[in-house]
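Table S2 (continued). Query chain:
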Amino acid sequence: MSPKDLKAALRKERLALRDEMPLEVRIEASLSMADHAGDIIALDPGHVVSGFWPIRSEADIRPLMVRLKDRGARLCLPVIVDKKTIVFRELVDGVAVVGTGFGTTGPGPDAPELDPDIMLVPLSAFDSAGHRIGYGAGYYDRAIDRLRRKGHIPRLIGIAFDCQEVASVPAEPHDVALDAVLTESGFRHFRQD
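Corresponding output:
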């Protein structure tokens, strides 16, 4: 099986497990994530943190984002601007969020675009080495590559439930490993060699 086919199979399997989690369990797990990481994610006041509004059965990291904002972070959300590109627009109190494509929600076109220092990255699956499988469209991979070409190296923190961990993700040369992952069990750093 090719790496692409194996990733697709792992994505389907782990998203099905995530979808099976009862809503109440996902809510409690999401609140646990805020408790585990709200005070330990290293950031300086003014650091830009990209989060996301949950879609489908994703973890709801809005409580975590509030904790990070209370510590001085500037928040932004990803916004799909075309079939290959996401940008990160600033999320500020009192400004409405709008539908931004593919079921996502984010600030409208008048919001400033920011380059995140820390990216809270949704994913389908991850392994103990920090490799991740996204949703298959490559939005985050391209956004990370674009930021790095500008000389901006954001810290990448995967957001997932424990059930999304797999024994091994078939890493390809273009894949970027996570710096850490946050699940309902805790915050785990990965050693990057």
